[in-house]
Amino acid sequence: MSKRPVIWVLVGILSVLHFVLHVGLGIGRAAPDLLTIALLLMAREVGVGSAAGAGLVLGLLEDSLSVLAFGANTVAMTMVGILGALTRDLFVGDSRLFVVSYLFLGKLARDFGHWVLVGDELRQPFSEQVLVQGGIAAVYVAAIGLGLTFAVRLTAES
Amino acid sequence: MVAYAPEPEPTGSRRQVPLAVGLALLAVVTLYLGPEAEQQIAGAVQSSVLRPFIWTQETLAQARMRAGQIDALQTQLDSLTAVLSTQSALSSENRALRDLLGLAERARPDYLPATVIRPGTPGSERMFIVDVGAADGVQVYSPVVSAEGLVGVIREVRERTAVGMDWSHPDFRASAMLEDGSAYGMVENARGVTGEDDLLVLNGTAFYENLPLGALVLTSGVGVIPRGIPIGYVDETADVQGTWRKSYWLRPSVQPASVTHVLVAVSGAPEDVAEMWATDPLASDSLGGRTGLPLVGPDR
Questions:
Q1: How many CA atoms lie within 13 Å of B178's alpha carbon, on the beta-carbon side?
Q2: How many domains does chain A contain in total?
Q3: ipTM value of the model?
Q4: How far apart are CA B192 and CA B201, in angstroms?
Q5: Could you state, in order of their start, the residue ranges of all structural domains in chain B?
Q6: Domain of residue A132, CATH code
Q7: A133 is in which domain, residue-wise?
Q8: Is the Cβ pair A75, B156 closer than 8 Å?
Q9: Minimum distance, in Å, between the CA of residue B115 and any CA atom of chain A
Q10: Which of A1, B154, B170, B299 has a CA that sits 20 to 30 A from residue B43's CA?
Q11: How would you classify the pairing of strands B184-190 and B111-117?
Q12: For residue B194, pLDDT beyond 70
């Protein structure tokens, strides 16, 4: 079984699950950022334009609930999609170390982008919002994403 | 005769880079959209793609409320021991619902009951959605209140829902006065060090006026918020500017994170609503009357 269809199905499930956890159940930060995981996994499989499009759509979905800084998530997710797709030209393979680093840095880049764009009034200190909260969230995303990556690999091989 | 031709590119790959650049520019454009365009996009997405998720949260919130009511009724039928063992959690929930019910009856029909939904996504921490909208008579800047006092104001109104900001939002301002009208000022949000411990501060009071500790601060009616809604209680002095002005920390009447059900003003609501929070026998045990510190007031 090819890996790409499995990725597409996974991206759809993760996107729905993200909004179920964050909006439907209102879990908030206790739930991982599954949209970023979905985007980062997809960016490794599609072209840079498609990844940008996916980032734009997913970011817009989040921004529709964020009246305070409309567009910040959209831009951050679009940029992460583009950067994620560009890593295919720089890094080949899917070793455990690479997957963890890719997901960790991808989530950190997404939070940094959001922090830059969110506006002075809402921006918390860099060390707190990006380094501490973003770092913890990035570890969370890397752990969940690593498990999903190996699940995809097992599914694709079967 | 070409021995080594370049590797053929996959179909459509040449279009990917211009497409990515175009989409990136489109994303940047969303940052500079006007409020109306933002509202239209957000409203369209919320009422279509995100509608099932918002509906889920509404349903869960209602289910929690019903469960709480059932538990409260069940508790009344249980033995005194069972009541005592569960008294702490149930009594606070029961008290909150009873207060809101009593307030709703006094406020009707100018204030509509609504369920508060917290999106829980980045950038929406100080915002909430209520399940009443323009069709119900809700307007921009309609005050949102609970039994304890002012929760926030409505920022955007849609057909069946509205988006509000609570008092922890940086843009929140409310003209305020002491309950007896002896001092006036402007209440605004003061960000805590960690961003998690927002406070209220009463600015602009005259230097010679020493506000009594624990005095109730109400909205003064100047501006968009009606007169007489409790905001908080005077705490210690926050700042002294020269010999002409003082500011005071307030202990907020309402902790926004704990609010699940509110009342939202509709068009035509009276400009003085102090009677809604007037002491009555039912509310006196929880609101603490209008003369003393509230039993349900926050601890800072």
A1: 18
A2: 1
A3: 0.87
A4: 11
A5: 35-107, 108-277
A6: 1.10.1760
A7: 4-157
A8: no
A9: 14
A10: B170
A11: unpaired
A12: no
